[in-house]
Design goal:
alpha/beta, Rossmann fold, eleven-stranded mixed beta sheet, 43% helix, elongated, Trehalose synthase complex regulatory subunit TSL1, phosphoprotein, trehalose-phosphatase activity, Trehalose_PPase
């Protein structure tokens, strides 16, 4: 008769089974020489001992105050004992009662800041004494604990220690907050020598960190893609316990022998930056897990100061190393660049840019980037975005993250974006996708190694005649472990015959810090493991609670019948790539979450990996069934597709592509910045007029007179009489072709320029063109699409305008505008939010389907088809300078005729015959003059003008940017002037001088 279920045969059988798999990997390791192993153990005991500094913030103190209510189980500080004897001293067992403190003690040092790869230990060679915290996770019988406590309470001497007691135990003996329990302790402890000031030390590679980045850079260096590199980052050791002179020595050794410039961060700042702001605010937000703890919100701004401080320290160290190592090199050198990595250093690009304005700077984000709706929840959202935009090139793992970044920057910063990237404050930042890869040849060597093959044999023997499903995750909610197990459970319920011959091997890596979630997962595992009716069969789920050796892991991948990645949100998961390479014999299928960065690569248009939605556990289970029942031919075809992707997107190509992108972006910015904007004068214009006898095209962009205001109310109306005088002077020469352009509609422009018959007109930023001397308008856009998006956009904009007093919506034939007007003066913050929402709505809903683009122009959100103004300029250049016939131009630019003052369009009747056959070959168009504003639309035309001149399509160009608000905006135009009246004043004076001459 059995009493509780815990003592039943089934229960007693299950518990050892779970640990037997761990014992299999732990105890099956073959030692090369037992005698040598025994000798190593003796030397470890009798030889010099390694010690390492501990952060005073490695306990629960700061995190508990900042991010979560302090639990009773984590009160107090970890215990410590100091001894001069030759025996090992264990830390206070009571300190191990706290899971949070126990987790902290498992770290030899603190986590890396910037994906560093170096660590160091201090070695005491002169004696066998040691001062350390015990990292063993053990529990003692209560009698042992009592004896230990009684020993500690003996009168204090040199060999005694400091203990923290449980709350309520000997309360009268506890010291007041910040003090000592005995008066003689302070003098004894504070006067004790710092062991780290005398102990020899050595530098070792750290086991943790971004290994894929380090390996990729090393491989790129070996193959010659990188000629020389230096690492800048934070050390993975607490610095407070190590004297400054020792840190200086370490820094010099790293600098001279390891090409590393180390940043030493005090423990409090590091804790606030990495463990608090990065891991508990930035990391969850970037993965769609918005922190909602009230204390984390209250301290978020405080923690941001730590984040900003560390970023500034890293930026200063980068600048110092750059000036020391690369100051003699030209900024044009493709190898002379700064490559910054990951979300820990969002602010560094702009900080470096402030000190090195000419440097090539790239930024790569290894994790996901959320939608603007999530990112905008961060209190420091604008500062973080502006920090990243200090780089010449920002690279992400997937196109989805690129789209989110562009939309977020557009919405929160009102930055414009195009096919190249983002335009913000006159600077272009290239934004692209280059996924991280792995070193396929090196991994193939490991797969074929003797060690892996030996493990393959043992795994086959251990799980003979079993179907293996393998997963490797950290036990947290983002990895989708719970959903994966539920899907597996659904599969087994649907296929009961598979229960006794299917095994999922789940490897958990890292520390588990969510006890509630772990409990949920273990309950599901227990439920699944209770499905077999035969207690002697293998469990359906085998859990390895710690990571295994890499050889073991690769061997497990080679024997797996499928590999499952179920992450809710994740950047690129290189374990998928490793599985593809390791499975070259079995050609096993890969099951991967569609929310993982690798999914878009390995999907292979539906012919590669099997994509799943982790939240849909029923369909997830069906995908597991499909993978288990897949024909070998389909397996091989899918594996081949995936392997081609993995082989193509390898680590070396990733580094090379990133370097090339940074260099291309820097060159593009340099070309734009080299066009120095100078004051526009009449002499400049006169020189432009004197340099040719061929045709000249003048396009002058004028403001909408109904919007003649600025925030200071100082903008004045354009004098049409002055325009008439200038126009008469310019058009008196038949070789001058003059057109006025504006955002205004056709009706408004015809009314405004009714008496200016010799000039052509361009309405709605290029949507409509009225050629000089013609009575009808032509359009250069697809009119079929106008009726699709215009009503929807107009409805949304009108609703926004109603909620923003002082604004209005203007709907034209091919353009919709939200004009902020006085709202920008009275409520600039609200106006910016509304305009950002409008931009995001248009670009999200119609950006791809209807090829629309929304951007900011003079305080208004302008919506029209992409590159409409550039299309109009291209048409004019082609029309007046090439031998292309009117029919060809009609088809090439989708030209349609539109009757004046009417929306009626007549197809195939554009360029009536008198306009097409110009005397080509006699008077070619050789000069282009364009004046416009400082907005994304006009800036695009300035770039086109420079390209036309560079490609020698026209002999000379002159571009003038009109600055209407006295701001210091940067422009790629050749010249600038203050306001339209100044522009026309200069043009009038030049025309007068030209006429007199």
């Amino acid at each position: 008769m059995h009493t509780p279920a815990a003592n039943s045969p089934m229960a007693s059988k299950r518990e050892p089974e779970m640990s037997s798999a761990e014992e299999f990997f732990d105890k099956s390791r073959k030692l090369p020489d037992l005698a040598r192993a025994l000798g190593d153990t003796v030397n470890d005991k009798l030889g010099p001992q390694l010690i390492q500094p501990r952060s005073k913030f490695s306990n629960a103190g700061l995190p508990a105050l900042v991010v979560e209510p302090k639990k009773k189980s984590v009160d107090g500080l970890p215990g410590m004992k100091i001894s001069r004897t030759s025996s090992f001293i264990n830390a206070n067992p009571t300190a191990h009662r706290s899971p949070l403190l126990r987790s902290a003690s498992e770290f030899k040092g603190r986590s890396g800041l910037s994906r560093q790869f170096l660590n160091f230990s201090l070695e005491k060679r002169g004696s066998t004494s040691a001062v350390f915290f015990d990292d063993d996770d053990y529990s003692e019988p209560s009698s042992t604990k009592a004896r230990s406590s009684s020993l500690i309470r003996e009168p204090f001497d040199v060999g005694s220690g400091i203990m923290d007691y449980d709350e309520g135990e000997d309360a009268e003996k506890l010291a007041p907050y910040g003090g000592f329990s005995r008066s003689n302790l302070e003098l004894s402890i504070l006067n004790r020598d710092n062991v780290f000031s005398h102990a020899p030390w050595q530098i070792e590679r750290a086991e943790k960190g971004n290994g894929s980045l380090v390996n990729a850079v090393d491989l790129a260096s070996e193959c010659g893609s990188i000629h020389n590199s230096r690492w800048v980052g934070a050390m993975s050791l607490p610095c407070d316990a190590v004297p400054t002179n020792v840190l200086d020595d370490i820094s010099e050794k790293l600098k001279d022998e390891y090409s590393c410039d180390a940043v030493f961060i005090d423990d409090e700042t590091f804790q606030g930056h990495y463990n608090s702001f990065c891991k508990q605010i930035l990391w969850p937000t970037l993965h769609y897990q918005i922190p909602d703890d009230p204390k984390s919100k209250a301290f978020e701004e405080h923690l941001y100061n730590y984040y900003k401080k560390v970023n500034q320290m890293v930026a200063d160290k980068i600048v110092e190393a750059y000036k020391r190592e690369n100051n003699h090199k030209s900024p044009k050198d493709p190898q002379n660049m700064i490559w910054i990595h990951d979300y820990h250093l969002f602010l560094v690009p702009s900080m470096v840019r402030e000190q090195l304005p000419e440097a090539q700077i790239g930024f790569f984000l290894h994790v996901s980037f959320p939608s603007s709706e999530v990112f905008r929840c961060l209190a420091q959202r604008e500062s973080l975005l502006k920090g990243v935009l200090g780089a010449d090139c920002v690279t992400f793992q997937t196109e989805e993250y690129v789209r989110h970044f562009l939309q977020t920057s557009s919405r929160l910063l009102l930055a414009d974006f195009n096919d190249f990237g983002i335009v913000f404050n006159g600077k272009y930042t290239k934004v692209n996708t280059i996924p991280v890869g792995i070193d396929v040849p090196s991994l193939q060597k490991i797969v074929d190694s003797h060690e892996v093959q030996e493990w393959q044999k043992m795994i086959r023997e251990r799980w003979r005649n079993q179907t293996l499903l393998v997963s490797r995750d950290k036990l947290d909610k983002l990895r989708g472990v719970k959903q994966k197990l539920l899907a597996y459970e659904n599969y087994l319920h649907k296929n009961p015959s598979k229960v006794e011959n299917t095994v999922m091997i789940q490897i958990f890596i890292g520390l588990q810090d969510d006890d509630d979630y772990e409990t949920e997962v273990m309950e599901i595992i227990s439920r699944i493991n209770s499905l077999p009716t035969n207690i002697y069969t293998a469990q359906p789920v085998v859990v390895l609670r710690h990571d295994i050796d890499f050889d073991q892991y690769i061997a497990l991948l080679t024997e797996a019948d499928t590999f499952i990645v179920s992450s809710m949100r994740e950047g690129l998961n290189v374990t998928c790539h490793e599985f593809i390479v390791a499975s070259h014999e079995k050609k096993a299928p890969l099951i991967i979450s569609e929310f993982t960065g690798s999914s878009h690569l390995l999907d292979c248009e539906g012919k590669g990996a099997l994509l799943v939605n982790p939240w849909d556990t029923r369909t997830f289970g069906d995908k597991i069934e499909r993978a288990m029942n897949m024909e070998q031919g389909e397996k091989e075809e899918r594996w081949k597709k995936c392997f081609e992707v993995v082989e193509t997107h390898n680590s070396i190509s990733w580094v090379k592509s990133c370097i090339e992108s940074i260099n291309e972006a820097w060159i593009f910015n340099q070309e734009k910045s080299s066009v120095t904007t100078k004051p526009f004068t009449s002499e400049v214009f006169s020189k432009f007029m004197d340099t040719t006898d061929d045709k000249r095209l003048f396009v002058i962009n004028v403001d909408d007179p109904s919007l003649n205001f600025d925030r200071q109310g100082g903008k004045t109306a354009l004098s049409l009489s002055r325009v008439g005088i200038i126009l008469n002077t310019l058009t008196s020469n038949p070789k001058n072709i003059v057109l006025f352009a504006s955002i205004m509609s056709r009706d408004e422009m015809e009314l405004l320029f009714n008496n200016v018959g010799k000039a052509g007109l361009i309405a709605e930023f290029g949507g409509y063109i009225k050629l000089p001397g013609k009575s009808h308008w032509i359009s250069v856009f697809d009119d079929h699409q106008i009726g699709v998006w215009t009503p929807q956009v107009a409805q949304v904009f009108r609703a926004k305008a109603e909620r923003l007093p002082g604004s209005k919506t203007i709907v034209s034939d091919c353009t919709v505008r939200l004009v902020a007007n006085t709202a920008l003066v009275h409520d600039p913050k609200r106006s910016a939010d509304v305009m950002g929402e409008c931009i995001q709505y248009v670009n999200d809903a119609f950006g791809e389907s209807e090829e629309l683009h929304a951007t900011i122009v003079d305080g208004s959100v302008v919506v029209q088809q992409k590159n409409l103004s550039i299309r109009a300029i291209h048409f004019l250049i082609s029309y007046y300078s090439s031998d292309i016939s009117g029919d060809v131009l009609t088809q090439l630019f989708n030209i349609k005729r539109v009757e004046s003052m009417s929306g009626t369009m007549f197809r195939n009747a554009i360029v009536d015959s008198p306009t097409a056959p110009l005397p080509h070959g006699i008077d070619h168009l050789s000069h282009l003059f364009y004046s416009g504003g400082m907005n994304p639309i006009d800036e695009g035309i300035y770039d086109i003008a420079h390209t036309l001149k560079k490609d020698k399509f026209v002999a000379n160009t002159l571009t003038v940017a009109v600055n209407n608000d006295n701001s210091q905006n940067v422009s790629s135009a050749d010249y600038s002037c203050m306001g339209q009246n100044e522009l026309f004043g200069i043009l009038g004076q030049a025309c007068k001088d030209f006429a007199e001459s």
